[in-house]
Amino acid sequence: MKESLLKLAFKKCREEKRPALITYTVAGDNTKKKSLDIINAISKTVDICELGFPHNTPIADGGQIQTSTYRALKNGLKIEDVFYIAKKFKLANKHKPLILMGYYNIIFQMGENKFLKKCEQVKVDGLIVVDLPYPENQIFANKCKKKNINFIQLVSPTTSKERLKKIIRASHDMIYYISMLSTTGGKLKVSPKRILQNFKNIKNQNKSKNVVIGFGITESTISKLKSADGLVVGSSLCSEITRSINNRQDPITNVIRLVNKLKNKIL
Amino acid sequence: MKIKNKVPLIDQHDKFGLWGGKFGGNYIPETLKKPVMDLEILFSKLRKNKEFIKDRDKHFKQWVGAPTRFIKLENLTNHLNGGQIWAKVVSDANGGAHKIYNATVHCLIAKKAGKKFIVGDTGAGYAGKMLSMAAKKFGLKAKIFMGAKDIKRQKPNCDAMKKNGAEIVPVYSGSQTLIDAVSECMRYWVSNCDTTHMCVGSTVGPNIFVKICGWSTSQISRELKPQILKEFGKIPNKVKLYNCVGGGSSSFGFWNEFIDYKKSQVEFIGVEAGGPLKSKKHAAPLTNNSKLGVLHGAMQYVVQNKEGQIEETESISAGLDYSGVSPLHCFLRDSKRARYTSASDEAALKAYKLVTKYENLNPSLEPCHAFAVACAEAPKLKKNNILIINSCGDAIKDKKILKEKLGKY
Ligand SMILES: Cc1ncc(COP(=O)(O)O)c(C=O)c1O
User: Fold this and answer.
1) For residue A17, what pLDDT is reported?
2) Ligand 1 pocket: which of B90, B98, B101, B394 to mutate (most atoms <8 Å of CB)?
3) Number of separate domains in chain B
């Protein structure tokens, strides 16, 4: 595997002595064009973009991301559109890593191979599949590797020590640590100190892996976790889009403002 | 795809939890891996533990009221003038439906796991009602997730849940029916799995929930087999077991003890909800050859569009109004052990009228789907055919709908 854009992004952040800022927004929220405009606009500030491919039965998502998801689907978003958005984004932001995130049924219906071929064509850098845990994901993760796509393993506070070892061994460049027992969008209910302790436990097993923390990260919690390799903000951005739409404001301006604030807190 | 003899069907899965190499499994978020594994270990120990079995049987007998009746429907048989019509009156069970078996076992497990809270989903409201009853009996605090549409149409069961001290959490997302209730319940468990036990209301969800539920409802056929032997002196040559299929827990439990018999001797007929005649929507993934997909943590045939978005279903019966179906039934269908068909809303209502006209039995809209098919097939069959319908629910919960549609209850 050649040096991935993800790895390079983490390296650059490390040199700047800060965590990578990773955002999650839903493809097609609230329109195909708008969601592309949003990630294009924030790509200057953000280190890695995650783009959700919506599924209408998202068992691990809280209210904010569900709202964005249903909105995108209601506006007619199809999986082809997700690849279109990804392609346009990567054409405009050649060096910015893009991760697609979603549920397995969407991949399964398209066919794993066809899905990955599409990812390769539009130059997707990584994939997160919420409901395809280890070891169920081994075959798919290997297929990703062959196409130079990072399969991102998830780890949570309930992951046992033994399991953690195996997952780290199976992981590629990036590991996603779920900060607490929660769906997305939950309030941070564990102290940042404890989260960072768990983070260190993972990190200590293999320093070359980039471990990011997600779930419960907002403007008010982000600075307390900045010793991680990266921090993921999702629900907070989705609510900002919802709020903007409800107030008839431009989501792009508001999301840029929020992302800038988040970035300032981790510099 | 083949079923093995002499091995319980619930155990015929591979190391990934897949039946027939492709149905079921554990398509779950990482956070749930550990609680699911803990539950797998606990359940595999408990089902081998004599004390636990004794305890279960005691509660089934003294509290649930086992065995439920096995009766001949003489008038209906005479009227249809074909095969003999019999019913296993599972609605005799405490609470009025088979959901009591799964609820009781889950509460017993939750106690063993040291959990004080239990959550569950419900569609028709029976799973929720039974969980509230069992939780109350065993001293657990229950929270029931229920679609807002179902709360409206199944009020009597909601009243019972509240009376038993359970909290009903209305779910407003999606179609506001069972599918959304299960999703929301799973989300709640993701956030609270350290303190809370989850009961999935049917043979659906991640592998272990399919197993626990199937193991629990198998009480139905454990009772039925000796009842048939007592009545006929043997298992007759032509037995047909009709059961409605929503998630598939009553039907699986009704069939389990007979799986090793040849289908020419004991035939299984699963009846899904065909929905209103005029509507394209249905809740019959097996009958209509829906594609394989993931729903609620398991690979199964599920009503979905070609992109993999789960589609809304429609049925007059809340208990059958579900887009997916148990992996066990996918396995039973593809191995050709069971046959699946559907009955429309109208056919179920007609069956309700027919059964209640001739018999002192009051089956809810779910089993009326099974009665519809059995009553349509009976006249074409010889007298030596024994048609047994699982009358798995009582219609009192459907009072409002029946009054509206038939003008009487
Ligand atoms: C009386 C009754 N029958 C059948 C069902 C369908 O579920 P299953 O197929 O799991 O038995 C329900 C579900 O709520 C029910 O209440």
Assistant:
1) 98
2) B98
3) 2
Are B228 and B88 within one domain?
yes
pLDDT band, residue B174 (cuts 50/70/90): confident
Instruction: Give the whole-angstrom CA distance, residue A203 versus residue B199.
Output: 36
Residue B328's pLDDT band (boundaries 50, 70, 90)?
very high
Q: Which three-class secondary structure state does DSSP give residue B208?
A: helix
**Within a domain: residue B23?**
no
pLDDT score recorded for residue B89: 98
pLDDT in tens, A228-263: 999 999 999 999 999 999 999 999 999 999 999 999
Mark whether A162 is an active-site residue. Answer: no
Q: What is the pTM for the complete model shown?
A: 0.98
- If asked whether residues B73 and B165 sit together in one domain, one would say no
Residue A18's Cβ-count burial label (10 Å; 0-12, 13-18, 19+) is middle
Cβ-based neighbours of B379, under 8 Å, separated by 6 or more? B80, B81, B82
A79 at B interface, C-beta within 8 A = yes
Amino acid at B235: I
CATH label, A5-266, candidates 3.40.190.10, 3.30.428.10, 3.20.20.100, 3.20.20.70: 3.20.20.70
B74 and B112, same domain (yes or no):
no
Give ipTM to 2 decimals: 0.97
- With contacts defined as CB-CB under 8 Å, which chain A residues touch B174? 56-57
> What's the Cα-to-Cα distance from B46 to each of B62, B105, B141, B223, B301, rounded to whole Å?
20, 11, 22, 21, 31
State which residue of chain B sits closest to A80, comparing Cα positions: B307
Q: Which atom of ligand 1 is closest in space to residue B249's alpha carbon?
A: 10
- Structural domain range at position B248: 65-96+218-406
Q: Is B297 on the interface with A (CB under 8 A)?
A: yes
| Confidence band for A6, pLDDT divided at 50, 70 and 90 | very high
CATH of the domain at B42: 3.40.50.1100
| Residue recorded with tokens 């994901």 | A137
Lookup: tokens for B75: 């008038």
Active site residue A50: yes
- pLDDT of residue A1 exceeding 80: no
- Chain A nearest-CA distance from B278, in A, is 25
pLDDT per residue over A148-202, tens digit each?
999 999 999 999 999 999 999 999 999 999 999 999 999 999 999 999 999 999 9
Which one, of B191, B31, B33, B190, lies nearest residue A156 by Cα? Answer: B31
Spot the catalytic one: A47, A61, A81, A240.
Answer: A61
Domain ranges, ordered by start, for chain A:
5-266
